[in-house]
Amino acid sequence: MSTRAIIAHWTDGRWRGVWNHASGHTQHLGRALIRGIRTIKGDLTGYIGAAIDGCPEGWSEFDKKRCEEPVGFLEGTFDGVVATCDASVNPLCFDTNYLYLIAVPKRRLYVFDVKDGPMRPFGMVTFDEAGIAKPRSLPAVGE
Fold it and tell me: Low-confidence residues of the chain, pLDDT below 70?
């Protein structure tokens, strides 16, 4: 079975993201996101434009293959600590395992276990101006 995830960014108390169908574990998708941000030297806005806003159909597997049938954007709230996902607006939210959330103002990437109700991140990295993550990886999760 595939490990599904949402790759999102945060603006004004809301997050907006795209579906990622496979390899959503931190050891795979988390590493790919950290590596991608490092590759473009920490340009989080540019990264969001390419990986999220520029891919409304979502990903079959991130950075390798886009979904053949458009999934559209998923949305929720984030107050800087707690995220939520509204199943009435996003029926696919609870068909995912993880939410990866890029917060440009804080230069952070958070990862959450997706659940119905308030979600707190179980992992986080902060990017310096060159795109180097500290710590260098997200916590590993069971596959």
Answer: 1, 143
